[in-house]
Design brief:
The chain is α/β, with parallel strands linked by helices and 556 residues long. The chain is built from 16 helices and 27 strands. A hairpin with a 4-residue loop joins strand 16 and strand 17. The mean pLDDT is 89.
Length: 556
């Protein structure tokens, strides 16, 4: 490939990387270059300087300049994303050993925050498998962490799941099963598979790191039963005692080093109130609830693979049926956050407006931004049942969404950061209404000089007589098309606001430029549109009407 072509690819990938993540990174640009042109690898010595120079130059541009230059490549990237989505739809969705009519799985969110894009992958796969195997999909709220969980989050999950079009075959909550779980805990103690530990959290952590068992591990079954009764009898303060699995403190898999099965927390629970204070951990609760509720198949993130051994060990110790586990990779979008703790922190600091802030990837935020439920589910199925880790780009989701929205979107003109143009002699053309004014984009206005001729798109031609800071003076030339730049324009002052969404994080830190608000004029009456309507603004792309009150449009 020629040097000129390589240079063009470098700039194209640098612009795309800067748009996605706020700043272009040399390593990311090189990776994309080699993928597009494998021969570049052998010439990386000579190309490295070009990559460094281009990345430095692109990072010196403001976002509007990057968007304007990238616009010539946008269609190419959209087509590539569409091809990728079409290829991904052909994944094999099958599980070895699964049988039609004998398949039960569950979607297990913890109601400690709002549903986000990461939840969508297992949900989409579980729903697809439910249909393939003519089975059942249950909604299971894993709600045994009283300090973080709220009815608000349960309600939000219900709303988001309904909007996504998921109908469940049943619903249950972990916290409703506490009496049964207490019985199984006592059974485990009676078999010598669990013991009550009175060590501090710090001591437990140190012992697990060193592989040393504490004195409580040697307690008799009767002593452990007595201490367990004291835990249930409210004889201990928070974390004053824990029930631990009696396993192998020298296990290679450190998960198996006597993990905690129950702990004491007196915080009131959103559903159970103050009825309970001894709460099971995920590692004890989940396998038992899965087994007793008839679940045959469990899908969970690859990050839990080391805990699979503990999942099965708990069931073996209690003589319970073991479901089948299938591990899948997580779905992550670069430049964003999904962890509830991090989102709560951003909200508390006022950096985002709430769980539905359009810069987030909660389902509520994606719905507000104008992402269709079909786009989310198609995107979530994109990598199939795979354990290969990868970080997706928001552009992949937006490309699917644009394909689904494109046909039904309104086509409108808009002028961003409008600059008035006073045209002498314009009354000679019927398209001009003197009382309404004439406005063009600020970015177009910056490129004009005295003496330039331009054509107002679909109307008439003018000559620039003077460019001032707050307006342009011009003279009417003619109505017939001429060989001159064609410029979009608006007659009238229907104000609107374009809200452009960028990556929330850049280099792992909050991006203060993740949202940009641009004032504009459009010729469309806001009262003729419905909130949520998709609009294609000429030269700017797809937007969604977020608010009729402020006439604000969110970028798609």
């Amino acid at each position: 490939m020629s040097v000129a072509r390589s240079s063009e690819l470098i700039r194209k990938f640098a612009l795309k990387n800067a748009l996605d993540y706020g700043k272009a990174q040399e390593g990311a640009v090189i990776s994309k270059l080699i993928a597009a042109d494998p021969s570049a690898k052998a010439r990386m010595g000579e190309l490295a300087a070009t990559v460094k120079s281009v990345v430095l130059e692109v990072n010196g541009l403001d976002r509007a300049q990057i968007e304007r230059e990238f616009s010539r490549y946008a269609a190419e990237f959209r087509e590539a994303e569409q091809e990728k989505a079409e290829r991904s739809s052909k994944h094999d969705f099958s599980i070895e050993g699964a049988e039609k009519g004998r398949f039960v799985t569950r979607f297990p969110p913890e109601p400690g925050g709002y549903m986000h894009i990461g939840h969508a992958k297992p949900l989409a796969i579980e729903d697809k498998l439910r249909r393939i195997y003519e089975g059942k999909l249950m909604l299971y709220f894993d709600d045994t962490n009283a300090e973080n969980e709220k009815q608000e989050f349960v309600d939000a999950f219900h709303a988001d799941l309904k909007w996504l079009g998921i109908v469940f075959d049943g619903e249950y909550h972990a916290s409703d099963n506490l009496p049964m779980l207490y019985e199984y805990a006592e059974k485990a103690i009676g078999k010598g598979a669990a013991y009550v530990c009175l060590c501090s959290g710090e001591k437990i952590k140190e012992d697990r790191a060193s592989g040393s068992g504490c004195v409580h591990k040697a307690h008799s079954i009767s002593r452990n039963i007595a201490l367990w009764k004291e835990m249930l009898g409210n004889k201990f303060e928070d974390n004053g005692a824990v029930l631990r699995f009696n396993s192998n403190m020298q296990a290679q898999n450190t998960t198996m080093r006597d993990p905690t099965l129950f702990r004491i927390k007196h915080a009131p629970h959103y559903r159970q109130g103050s009825r309970y204070w001894v709460w099971p951990t995920y590692d004890f609760c989940t396998p038992i609830v899965d087994s007793t509720k008839g679940v045959t198949d469990v899908l969970r993130s690859k990050e839990y693979e080391l805990r699979d051994e503990l999942y099965f060990a708990v069931l073996d110790a209690l003589g319970l049926r073991k479901p089948r586990i299938t591990s899948i990779s997580r779905l992550e979008i670069g430049g964003n956050v999904t962890h509830k703790r991090e989102v709560r922190k951003l909200i508390a600091e006022g950096k985002v407006s709430g769980w539905d802030d359009p810069r987030l990837v909660t389902i509520a935020a994606l719905r507000r931004r104008g992402i269709l439920p079909q786009a989310i589910m198609e995107f979530a199925l994109g990598s199939g049942i795979s354990k290969s880790e990868s970080v997706s780009s928001m552009d992949q989701l937006l490309a699917i969404n644009r394909r689904l929205l494109e046909k039904g979107a309104l086509r409108l003109f808009i002028v961003a950061e409008p600059v008035p143009v006073e045209v002498e002699g314009a009354d000679k053309n019927p398209n001009y209404k003197a009382d309404r004014g004439l406005f063009i984009n600020a970015t177009d206005a910056k490129g004009f000089s005295k003496g330039d001729s331009i054509r107002l798109r679909g109307a008439f031609n003018i000559r620039i007589d003077g460019v001032q800071k707050d307006k342009i003076r011009a003279t009417y030339i003619s109505s017939e098309p001429i060989d001159a730049p064609r410029v979009p324009w608006i007659s009238g002052k229907q104000s609107c606001e374009l809200v452009q969404i960028g990556p929330l994080l850049v280099d792992g830190r909050f991006n203060s430029d993740s949202i940009r608000r641009i004032k504009g004029y459009t010729g469309w009456d806001v009262n003729e549109m419905e909130e949520g309507s998709a609009v294609r603004f000429e030269g700017l792309g797809l937007y969604k009407l977020d608010s009729k009150q402020t006439f604000a449009f969110l970028s798609l």
